[in-house]
């Protein structure tokens, strides 16, 4: 019961406290709240504060003349003169012994890639092979040289050399137009070449070239290469290449249709990006009319060899 009486007394005391805490605003006087600005000079776009009376709570701006305010110093609009910047962005500065900067892609560049320079032992013979891709030019127009061939006992067995004009059609694809020349121990042939090569999704290098020659001859070569990085320096490279012909060519042991397929697997170690020795295996398979021609001469239609070589880049 005593607790109830104590709580009742506490609740009854709150109105008294809040009444005493109220502020009486009735005694505040705001009537004398004007400021005389008649002495302000605005004629030159600047305000003279010497005549301002700040002793009272507000400003009387009834005598302010806004018409005399000048906005000329706020900034000017208009076009820049045609000679505001020099064409080469040098602003007339001399670079001294340093050559002036040039836009990338306009200069002449070059590259030589010896993708394969290898040797193998096949049926007691030392065979060697090469595969070269070189070019010179700009980003938009290049003269390219492709060369591939095999030799046995220091004698050239067969070779394919192509001189091409290479031009990009996309970020990752180039077109090629030129000539191909076949040489070696068999009859020589010259072809018109039209191809495309580049990098497909998943970083696979693809290439396809159509060849046309006299006597209504046509050929198609397709190839694919992939670099699988086992480590930052060790790369496993599978390659596949196949050739198709429209007519028999007995003088070069080539038959109509699917002629051959070459599949290789090479493991290289990049001592530097420009020098990488490798070892691997390569298999060659012949089909159709080409296989029949080889059997008629007593030669094998399939072969597999272990190769060792080096990959060079300049």
Automatic annotation (TrEMBL):
Residues 63-80 have a biased composition (Low complexity). The keyword Plastid does not apply. Residues 63-93 are annotated as: Disordered. Residues 1-18 form the signal peptide. InterPro entries: Cu-R_B_prcur. It holds the Pfam family CopB. Keywords: Signal. This is Copper resistance protein B. It comes from Paraperlucidibaca wandonensis.
């Amino acid at each position: 019961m005593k607790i109830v009486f104590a709580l009742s007394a506490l609740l009854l005391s709150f109105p008294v406290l809040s009444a005493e805490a109220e502020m009486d605003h009735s005694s505040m006087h705001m009537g004398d709240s004007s400021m005389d600005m008649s002495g302000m000079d605005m004629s030159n776009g600047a305000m003279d504060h010497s005549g301002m009376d700040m002793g009272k709570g507000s400003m009387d701006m009834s005598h302010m003349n806004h018409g005399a305010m000048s906005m000329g110093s706020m900034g000017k609009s208009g076009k820049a003169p045609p000679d505001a910047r020099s064409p080469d962005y040098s602003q007339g500065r001399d670079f001294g012994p340093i050559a002036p900067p040039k836009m990338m892609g306009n200069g002449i560049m070059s590259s030589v890639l010896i993708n394969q320079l290898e040797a193998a032992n096949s049926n007691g013979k030392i065979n060697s092979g090469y595969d070269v891709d070189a070019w010179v030019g700009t980003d938009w127009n290049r003269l390219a040289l492709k060369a591939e061939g095999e030799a046995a006992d220091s004698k050239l067995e067969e070779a394919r050399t192509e001189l091409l004009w290479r031009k990009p059609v996309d970020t990752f694809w180039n077109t090629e137009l030129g000539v191909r020349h076949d040489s070696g121990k068999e009859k020589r042939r010259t072809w018109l070449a039209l191809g495309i090569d580049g990098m497909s999704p998943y970083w696979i290098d693809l290439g396809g070239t159509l060849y046309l020659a006299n006597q209504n001859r046509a050929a198609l070569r397709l190839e694919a290469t992939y670099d699988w990085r086992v480590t930052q320096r060790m790369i496993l490279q599978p390659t596949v290449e196949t050739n198709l012909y429209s007519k028999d060519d007995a003088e070069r042991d080539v038959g109509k249709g699917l002629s051959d397929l070459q599949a290789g697997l090479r493991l290289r170690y990049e001592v530097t990006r420009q020098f990488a020795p490798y070892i691997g295996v390569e298999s060659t398979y012949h089909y159709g009319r080409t296989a029949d021609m080889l059997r008629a001469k007593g030669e094998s239609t399939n072969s597999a060899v272990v190769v060792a070589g080096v990959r060079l880049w300049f």
